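Complex 176.
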Amino acid sequence: MSNLKLSTYISEENIQKKVKELGQAISAKYKGKDLVAVCILKGSFVFFSDLIRHIDSDVQCEFFGVSSYHGGMSSSGEVKVTLDLAHPIEGKDVLLVEDIVDTGLTMNYLKAAMLSRKPKSLITVTLLEKPDALKVPCEVDYVGFKIKNDFVVGYGLDYQGLYRNLPYIAQVQSLN
Ligand code: IMP
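Predicted structure with inosinic acid bound:
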């Protein structure tokens, strides 16, 4: 067992309400269109699985793995691809689904990686964004919650591989 102390940061109820709103907004934008939703692993798999169930279009799911934190609490700035898309996205309407934008480096890398494959369109959604932590300008089409520069876990987000299974988002309170 970990000795990390956690406190609720965003409740399960508030997350679910927000995810539904995001799904409805994305559905309205993609009305009547087929969509490729790209889940960025590992952090966004929980958000992704809830979000796609609120999208009212034909959705094809793709998975793209990156690693940028290397298990710690600060971003390395380096992005390593751990899993590539299984199918081409050329000519498709693509929705990129991220868990959190911190420095913005990963999101910008991901956008460039997707655009290099020539989709018909690309829009981005992140559940969380830390505006005060941005190191580079980073535009995201849909943002669930803007949060302070705090390290958070749960709902897919981890600390050293743990806590992804929490149904809410928690702040790491103290280490002993
Ligand atoms: P960025 O490149 O600094 O924007 O980092 C983005 C990635 O870092 C995210 O996809 C997460 O995997 C991870 N990350 C950033 N902030 C946190 C956090 O507060 N908790 C857990 N992971 C985080």
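The CA atoms of residues 15 and 168 lie 7 Å apart.
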